[in-house]
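pinned: reference chain
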Amino acid sequence: MSSPPPPLLFLITSPTDPIYTAEFLKPGTTTSSSSKQYAHYLLHSQLDIVEKLKHSTSSSQLKTLSSHPPSHISGFLPPSPHAFLLLHGNMNGDNITKFFNDVCEVFLKAMMNPFQGMEDGINSKGFDDRVRAIARRYLS
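pinned: its structure tokens
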């Protein structure tokens, strides 16, 4: 019996706290609360690794940080003190790279807002809608 595909979970972290989280589900699908908690646990377990990689790599694309079949975690370092993490199944690496690059553009525009603090949560519906549209384009 094969295990169900992992939920697509996206996380943006500041140096101290997560500032944005999004779960991308296909219409008509649900995930149990235990699988959601496990997905969050997997992403948060990679934060120390990302912090170490920030200081030892010049690449913004961290590729696959960890694999816990059927889940994989990819990371991205925007030109800021933040990090992007994506929990996904077995997906095309080019699509993940395009997803991160497009979200980075939207993210940097949001951070340039004078009313948005660098470590404040991103609660903008417009930002969330744009990230979800990018996810539909590249991660579906």
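why pinned: The beta strands are 8-13, 18-24, 61-68, 71-76, 83-88. Residues 110 and 124 are 9 Å apart (CA to CA).
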